[in-house]
Structures are given as C-alpha cells and as structure tokens.
Amino acid sequence: DVKVTQSSRYLVKRTGEKVFLECVQDMDHENMFWYRQDPGLGLRLIYFSYDVKMKEKGDIPEGYSVSREKKERFSLILESASTNQTSMYLCASSPPLGGRTYFGAGTRLSVL
Amino acid sequence: QKEVEQDPGPLSVPEGAIVSLNCTYSNSAFQYFMWYRQYSRKGPELLMYTYSSGNKEDGRFTAQVDKSSKYISLFIRDSQPSDSATYLCAMSFMEYGNKLVFGAGTILRVKS
Q: What is the model's pLDDT at position B53?
C-alpha cells in the first residue's frame, strides 16, 4: 500500500517560532509537494521538488522554505510563524509523469 | 475565470441514490484527470485516475472524461452514508513536475 507519512497530525506554535513539518514517502517517487488547504480557497501549492536537492516555488511560497536532502523526505519550514499561516498542510508525492499523486493525512497547524 | 470549476455544494441525497459530481475546465492541454475523496480533517484519498478521454469503472464508482467538452464526471451508484465527504477533481499536464490543478471540491452528504 502506498504511503505518505506526515510526522505530526496537530501542531500548536507561537508567532515568531521556526516550524518544521516533515514528510516521508515510501514509493520511491521523484516528485514531492507541499500544499495548504483553507476553507473557501481549496488546495494551494506552496513548493514542490522533482528531485533531490531540487525545489521550485508554487503559487504561495512567501514565508516558507523547503528542504529535500533525501529522495524520500521533504520538509517544509516556516521561518517565522505568523497567525495567517494557521492552516491544514498537506504533503504529496507522485512519479515524474502521469498525474497519480498521493497525499499524506495532513498536519493541522495553529499559530497563536 | 478559474482553470477548473467545481460546484461546492453541499449536495444532499438519500441513501441508495445515484450521485453525479462534475467539473469543467478551460485548458485543453490537461491530460490526466483524478478524483479525490476527503473526509473531514483527513488528507485527500485518490479514488479514480484517468488518462485522456473515456470511462473508468471501479466498483460503485465510474469516472468519465469528455475532452471535447472539457468536462469530467464522477458517478457513485448505490450511495452510502460512508460516502459522505468532500470530492475534489484534479488534473495535470503531460510535463515533468506533475503539478495538479484542483477544483474547489463538492461536499456530499448521503442521508440514511
């Protein structure tokens, strides 16, 4: 069974903290993604990576950075958390072509 | 105009009904089409995956793609209360990186 695992289901952080969200996939996929999901706005792409150490900005990269040191692991970093980053964060992975994309269970982040 | 349009609902049906969910899109270059099911506070789960035009059936679920009309559908037969969820359509181009473009999602409620 395919698996994308996000390290935390729920996180509560203070404004200004540095926050790390971790994601691991076991399908040997080249592509990995970070989305955020907000009511009324749907899923929005933050960053994606198509290979180790490669990254590209998505639609809303401001305030975020990413790291991909190993093929199976993709980390999202909030450099200085703000209240408007309170959201559901979804990690996903896919093969290089073909659309078939699998999601993790999500991390619900609250920034107070 | 959004690239992918999807009626957010909610759509409320009695148990056993046939459900029809739809998306329209504007970019004829989309090649891969997917339907995801998302339960409350969980990540999206890949339900159906189709390449180009045609029909695909999996149990009670049938996905249809009509590229000439830029229209995709998901049919659920003999709907069950456990089908109550948000259904997201998604599509992608034939390109490396494989980014998905999502519809807003339709909330479905199946009443017992």
A: 85
